[in-house]
Amino acid sequence: MEKVTVAFEFEKETKNSVRYKEVPKEGQAPVVGSLYVQKWFAGACKNLQVTIEKT
Which pTM does this prediction carry? Predict the structure, then answer.
């Protein structure tokens, strides 16, 4: 199993969600790109971290 933690920063709000853009580690390509999170969960959060595990 391989795990990777990806950092995201606020990009913009849409009608019902918040779009975050990935902050790739230096010298690496983005793993996810953009991530949409529902406003009820995201709230005023400006930064997120997501852990992805390949099984």
Answer: 0.88
Question: What pLDDT, in 10s, does the model give residues 32-44?
Answer: 999 999 999 999 9
> CA 12 from chain center: how many Å?
12
- At 16, which helix (H) or strand (E)? none
Q: Give me the domain span that covers residue 39.
A: 2-54
Give the number of domains in the chain: 1
Side-chain half-sphere CA neighbours of 9 within 13 A:
2
C-alpha 2/C-alpha 55 separation (Å) is 7
